[in-house]
């Protein structure tokens, strides 16, 4: 961890337009979520409301602190946490809401922020899917409580692996910087000159979660490509939307890309046809993804509390992520995917 890491942090903050907060870089998005959970002060006996349509690292970050997840349902259109379902899950042990921007949508952050303020809760905003996107004119990462980005190998922008927390509070920035390097007080200003100290002192529990210069250098070069990557992904999603509109058996995002650097283009089809459709696409050499099996059905997570989860359960068995790349995708490529889908569903 040295010069490139500080430059990567500055580049991320500048790119998203952060004025009142700083970026703290970590080894992965999962590590960043764990640190976010510690910043939120989570511990045994605490509960965190988290959508069941989430990445395993969301639940594991909560569990790593000794707190427990409470699974919440998602909005039927966006598959982001449904603010209308959060209220009924807030109880005396609730400490935080974990909100994930999903695919090519962002959450209703105003509603979530208002609920959190009304109940004195922290918001951990997982923006792994939404770096370079905005919400009502505000850059993602510039306005939510504790915001996390991932730059893992399959994200829109990759550093091969990296995570970032956007933090407004200086004490929380210092806490994150100590925790990422074994709980030691090695001053980043020294390390960021590619120097190291030998008289460091461990002042708290910590982890080996710091980012290396090599990953940071890759991240800096990728962030510079954001405008091109955004345009390529928006254009691919727009073509998918044009080609997949008007079929009763296909639900998909049709018009939400202008503020987004879309991470996933997903469709929903009748559940009984989903696996057959994926196999038909595979036969044509077209790979697809599943984001995700809902968390509450994973063996270890069945023990945790939940609200009613009809949308998460439906989405878990009817959603498919279609091919989407940061490099340009030709109309021919997208049309071949769409033609295969339409032919199968007919
Ligand atoms: C929504 C979400 N959150 C968190 C993560 C974890 O990030 P990382 O892979 O950088 O640890 C991912 C990774 O795929 C993700 O999609």
The total number of structural domains is 2
How much of the residues is beta strand, in percent?
A: 5-15%
Instruction: Give the averaged pLDDT, no decimals.
Output: 97
* Structural class by SSE content: alpha/beta
* Overall morphology: globular
Oligomer kind: single chain
User: Strand order of the main beta sheet, please?
Assistant: 1-9-8-5-4-2-3
**Largest sheet properties:** 7 strands, mixed
CATH topology of the largest domain: Aspartate Aminotransferase, domain 2
Q: What is the CA–CA distance across the termini?
A: 55 Å
Number of helices: 12
Residue runs with pLDDT of under 50 for 5 or more positions: none
Instruction: Enumerate the distinct ligands.
Output: pyridoxal-5'-phosphate
CATH class of the largest domain: Alpha Beta
Protein model, in words:
This protein folds into two domains: 221 residues, Type I PLP-dependent aspartate aminotransferase-like (Major domain) (Aspartate Aminotransferase, domain 2); 120 residues, Aspartate Aminotransferase, domain 1. The chain has a seven-stranded mixed β-sheet with strand order 1-9-8-5-4-2-3, sandwiched between helices. A two-stranded antiparallel sheet has the order 6-7. Helix content is 38%, strand content 14%. The mean pLDDT is 97. The protein is an alpha/beta fold. Bound molecules: pyridoxal-5'-phosphate (PLP). InterPro entries: DegT/StrS_aminotransferase, PyrdxlP-dep_Trfase, PyrdxlP-dep_Trfase_major, PyrdxlP-dep_Trfase_small. One of its GO terms (biological process) is polysaccharide biosynthetic process. It holds the Pfam family DegT_DnrJ_EryC1. GO terms for molecular function: pyridoxal phosphate binding; transaminase activity.
């Amino acid at each position: 961890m040295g010069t490139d890491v500080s430059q990567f942090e500055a580049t991320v903050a500048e790119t998203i337009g952060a004025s009142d907060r700083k970026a703290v870089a970590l080894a992965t998005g999962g590590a960043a979520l764990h640190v976010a959970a510690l910043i939120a002060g989570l511990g045994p006996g605490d509960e965190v409301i988290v959508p069941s349509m989430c990445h395993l690292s969301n639940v594991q970050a909560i569990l790593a602190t000794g707190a427990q997840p409470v699974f919440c349902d998602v909005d039927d259109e966006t598959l982001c946490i449904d603010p209308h379902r959060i209220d009924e899950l807030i109880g005396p042990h609730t400490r935080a809401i974990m909100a994930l921007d999903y695919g090519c949508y962002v959450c209703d952050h105003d509603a979530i922020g208002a609920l959190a303020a009304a109940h004195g809760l922290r918001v951990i905003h997982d923006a792994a899917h939404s770096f370079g996107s905005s919400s009502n004119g505000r850059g993602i990462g510039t306005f939510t409580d504790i915001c996390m980005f991932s730059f893992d190998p399959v994200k829109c922008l990759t550093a091969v692996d990296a995570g970032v927390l956007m933090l407004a509070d200086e004490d929380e920035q210092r806490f994150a910087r100590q925790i990422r390097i074994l709980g030691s007080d090695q001053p980043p200003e020294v390390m960021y000159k590619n120097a190291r100290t030998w008289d460091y002192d461990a002042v708290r529990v910590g982890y080996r979660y710091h980012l290396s210069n090599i990953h940071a250098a890759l991240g800096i070069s990728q962030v510079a490509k954001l405008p091109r990557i955004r345009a390529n992904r928006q254009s691919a999603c727009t073509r998918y939307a044009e080609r997949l509109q008007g079929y009763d058996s296909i639900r998909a995002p049709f018009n939400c890309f202008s503020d987004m650097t879309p991470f996933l283009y997903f469709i929903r089809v009748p559940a009984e046809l989903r696996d057959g459709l994926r196999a038909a696409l595979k036969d044509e050499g077209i790979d697809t993804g599943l984001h995700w099996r809902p968390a509450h059905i994973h063996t270890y997570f069945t023990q945790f509390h939940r609200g009613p989860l009809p949308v998460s359960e439906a989405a878990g068995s009817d959603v498919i992520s279609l091919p989407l790349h940061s490099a340009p995708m030709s109309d021919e490529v997208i049309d071949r995917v769409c033609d295969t889908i339409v032919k199968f569903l007919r």
